[in-house]
Amino acid sequence: MSITKKVFGTDKKTKKAVYEYCIKNKNGMYAKILNYGGIIRELWVPDGNGKLADVVLGHDDLMPYYENAGFLGAAIGPSANRIGGGKFTIDGVEYQIPVNENENNLHSDKENGYHVRIFDVEEGVNSIRLFLQDEDGAMGFPGNKKLEIIYTVTEENGLRIDYHFISDRRTILNPTNHSYFNLRGQDGGSIEDHVLWLKASYYTPVAEGSIPTGEIASVKGTPMDFTEPKTIGQEIGADFEQLKLGGGYDHNWVLDDVDGQLQLVAKVTAPGTGRVMKVYTTLPGLQFYAGNFLGDQDGKLGTKYHNRYGLALETQYFPDGIHKENFPDVMFGPDRQYVSSTVYQFCYE
Q1: Model confidence pLDDT, tens digit, residues 130-167
Q2: What is the largest CA-CA distance in the chain?
Q3: How far apart are CA 136 and CA 169, in angstroms?
Q4: What value does the mean pLDDT of the chain take?
Q5: What percent of the chain stands above pLDDT 70?
Q6: What is the DSSP secondary-structure string of 61-127?
Q7: DSSP assigned state of 326
Q8: Region 161-183: what's the mean pLDDT?
Q9: DSSP conformation letters of 261-289
Q10: Is the pLDDT of residue 313 over 90?
Q11: Are 82 and 208 in contact (CB under 8 A)?
């Protein structure tokens, strides 16, 4: 195991140095992570023949990450995904947060969210520990919050992400990581031929604006069913209202048999590469986003990214959970700390 560090740039807002940390295991797998936004900028994993490929979308320099409309590789917080109306009530007090996607809130705050913040870093043997403090009222959310994210590259070719929040007031906490994966490599083109399996018999349908209706619906007999592996492109264009609303897959799946322990919830393969990614998490939900609106943008090493050139598997509590009594509780505070773990594990078939 080894960790190296280099200057990646200077943050235009704080004028602080931005560092890139490279964590490498004995098998040659390595991750490059920025203290800016907790961004996973590169993730090099071997295939069955030992050939390395960088399997996450990203950029070669800091400038594109200032905009980063697609949140490539970033740590999202304090609340990922969507909150209807950009407001919520806790203990009788109404809070207004940014309305930044139609009439709703997406990923907390595009200008001040954790994806554009500078983290303090402590290096370990095979991990880095990122720290951030967030003041009461920042982005409209209550509570003085302390966040810790640990990125670990394991000897089993896994990238593990552990989160720990404490807050002195009851607040919404629902962080995630927004990496886009392409198991052919970041220059591998469309992910529609990737094969996906999800341990999820139900999902949460959305209304226009991608806010969940509150229903927990069976996937059976619909294009949302990945309980048996199938290619992402097989039914992504089906005449199905939920797919039309999201421009393809961009929904929260309700994971089966959740008990708070780390469990296998998803598996992705890229035919012909032998490369497999398994996703483990302690969380109850998973947002599968097929990159429907990545648009046309410049990626790493001259690569041009287009729609569906990467897929995101964001582990989470359910979107808009603050407004849905039947969804898992997204409220954390002095009597309930936030703790979760997610692992992206790579192997070969």
Answers
A1: 999 999 999 999 999 999 999 999 999 999 999 999 99
A2: 59
A3: 8
A4: 97
A5: 100
A6: SSHHHHH-TT-TT-EE-SB-SEEGGGEEEETTEEEE----BTTBEESS-TTTSGGGSBPEEEE-SSE
A7: T
A8: 98
A9: S-EEEEEEE-TTT-EEEEEEESSSEEEEE
A10: yes
A11: no
Residues 214 and 324: beta-carbon distance below 8 Å = yes
Residue of 20, 42, 235, 314 marked catalytic: 314
Confidence of residue 49 (pLDDT cuts 50, 70, 90): confident
Determine the Cα angle at 117 with ends 109 and 163, to 5°. Answer: 90
d(CA 151, CA 30): 12
Distances 331 to 79, 88, 210, 259, 290 between C-alpha atoms, Å: 11, 11, 21, 18, 28
From the list 107, 115, 178, 194, the catalytic residue is 178
Within the chain, how many helices (H) and strands (E) appear?
Answer: 2, 29
pLDDT at 127 (0 to 100): 98
Which band of pLDDT confidence, cut at 50, 70 and 90, is reported for residue 238?
A: very high
Q: Residues in the chain, how many?
A: 349
Task: For residue 78, say if its preceding peptide bond is cis, omega within 30 degrees of 0.
Answer: yes
Smallest CA-to-CA distance from 255 within 317, 302, 306 is with 317
Mark whether 107 is an active-site residue.
Answer: no
Write down the pTM of the prediction: 0.97
Alpha-carbon span 220 to 293, nearest angstrom:
26
Mean pLDDT throughout 205-223? 97
Residue with tokens 């402590």, as numbered in its chain: 122
C-alpha distances in angstroms, 228 versus 177, 195, 306? 25, 10, 28
